[in-house]
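Lecture 7 notes: from sequence to structure.
We start with the chain below.
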Amino acid sequence: MTLQQLRYVIAVVNYGSISEGAKQLFISQPSLSNAIKELEKELGIEIFHRTPRGITLSSEGTEFLSYARQVVEQAELLEERYSGQRRVKRICSISTQHYAFAVEAFVRMLTELDHDSYEYTLRETRTGEIIEDVKNLHSEVGILYINDFNRKVILKLLAESGLVFHPLFRAMPHVFISKTHPLAGEKSVTLDQLEEYPFVCFEQGQLNSFYFSEEICSTHSYKKQIHVSDRATLFNLLGGLNGYTISSGVLGADINSDSIIAVPLITDDTMLIGWCENSRTGLSAAAKRYVDTLEQVVSDMGFTILAEGEKY
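Predicted structure tokens for the same chain:
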């Protein structure tokens, strides 16, 4: 077993396929495939399940990946410390619901990163895809929320997918509206007051279930409703149509936050926002750095970071 073989396995997982892994490693696909098969033969395990649709990590492969990442990271630290060579490229992927603070943490982390070579991915995507991304190791960290309504369904799905949920902070629901909205001067609002205005929410694709909604009060009957797929479109609709959406109230340093305000929504519900990871692999050093930065950004915004063992 060699460090190169370990790097090959990690690359295939990071890039999602042997063909793309080979492309990024600048080697032929047969060479990469043979190297992994030789490693599997040597170890006596099947790291990847191979099907006509592609490859996926086996349960043994998931455990192996955890050790491989640790070994490679330590080797890279040694190389950086003593070889005098250019620092090794850092690779990390994050999947998240549409939260400005998650983007702000991403920006801050990369701004402070002391590496001249990296490849990071930030996916603002649907709730179900976040869980699938972390389950299949396409992302190391997934950011989403739970509340009283979706708790049992989301936590059950996370557990079945081998994921662990870490609470980050608790937020009181707010509505995002434009500064020119007729209700912009209110100290708080109710859903009844908002009834005549379009409710804008993120569509969830085939898993467009109430339980996967990014917005609380998902079972409420809205008179006017618009589904979108990205935050820029959502913010434009809030301004152009006097629409509103329901979120955590954390705007952050978003490009549109100068024209959008957060108004408290009168409801008994709360949002517990947290992050999940694959329990069998652990986080790489790059992913740990992101989580640390995420906690710092949330703390700087005035929220209390929840203790790991706190009941949720």
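Points to note: Residues 105 and 294 are 5 Å apart (CA to CA). The first strand starts at residue 48 and ends at 51.
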